[in-house]
Amino acid sequence: MTDLVIRNVRPLGKAATDIAVAGGRIAAMGTNLPANGALVEDGGGALLLPGLIEAHTHLDKTLLGMDWVENVVASDIRSKIDNEREMKGVLGLDPALQSARQVVMSIARGTTAIRSHVDIDTTYGLAGLEGVAATRERYADVIDLQIVAFPQSGMMIRKGTVELMDEALRQGADIVGGLDPCAIDFDPKGHLDVVFDLAVRHGKPIDIHLHEPGELGLFTFGMILERTRAHGLAGKVTVSHAFSLGMNDYLRVGRLLDEIAGAGVMLMSTGPAGVPVPPLIRALDAGIAFCSGTDGMRDLWNPYGNADMLQRAQILADRNNLSRDAEVERALDVCTFGGAAVMGLPDYGLKVGDFADLVLVEGRTLTEAVVTLPQRKLVVKRGRVVARDGEALVEAA
Ligand SMILES: [Zn+2]
């Protein structure tokens, strides 16, 4: 039985078609599909994209909807970490409410799946996990949400954090996080042995923040690759940021990209300004699964961000100096199929049988949509309309 028919849409910019949805999945595609009493939406010739994928953010600590907080923190990572841990308490930040606010903003912009890192530390314990897990449950039928247990304040340098990470994974965190094993934890072997041990014991994937630059980052990369191969975790390990791959040594970076592809390690880049970034096209050409995300937004680290993964594709393309349409489309692909691959989302796409996670936007071509960032006309999650004309149909309060 058909639940929804969307007429006259162009899947990824191809020829116009209708699309019928039944049981949360794409049931048929073709012209003049029968409605059979189902809800009918007029696509008006819009582009049809699969749901946008936010594969790296921090839902537990956005300041969305709260009073403005003047940012006076120094620009180094350690200062930002310490400032945030203190200020979260001062501000009385509520991870459940804040994550709900960002989820609603994401839905309005066409995101249908989110991977969020959530702080696990000895000051707040599992409060962040509990808050975001409540949001995951509350919005379970309108967005897929993966939670990474993330030792933001360091793990080896703060006694008790390893035990909290273990507990977080028992209590519903989906993924083991990590953070700068050398630069923050000063113990790369200790840090990575714990991360991989937690992953193996809990049977969960890994997603490590690696801001370490240049030689230091490459050193850590080597240790991550070694452990990924030793534990047979191909396709289960993501390195987020990976600034060291932006180093100016063409041949060496090329060899490492091949090694990363061979080990089945995946990459995430937000395309940030001001730091070297992994070369997107070279990484994709090497066969590496590559995703992107908003990262922390409107939080105690930085005032920017709007949870728009179409805009993220533009930022990623711009930061990688991509201007040909075919290349811009690859940046968009990172924010759709790339994210789905890294997150391991089943039945993702625009084929008959795939889950009906869909976004409609105006635009003659995919590249034009990335350039003009049109409002999301319609967002569908598992066959249900969850946003219309840029507004989510669910609330945060
Ligand atoms: Zn992050």
UniProtKB/TrEMBL annotation:
Domain Amidohydrolase: 121-387
Listed Gene3D superfamilies: Metal-dependent hydrolases (3.20.20.140), Urease, subunit C, domain 1 (2.30.40.10)
Organism domain of life: Bacteria
GO MF, one example: hydrolase activity, acting on carbon-nitrogen (but not peptide) bonds, in cyclic amidines
Alphabetical list of InterPro entries matching this protein: Amidohydro_3, Metal-dep_hydrolase_composite, Metal_Hydrolase, Metallo-hydrolase_Enzymes
Cited CDD domains: Bact_CD (cd01293)
Name under which the protein is recorded: Amidohydrolase family protein
Species this protein is from: Kaistia nematophila
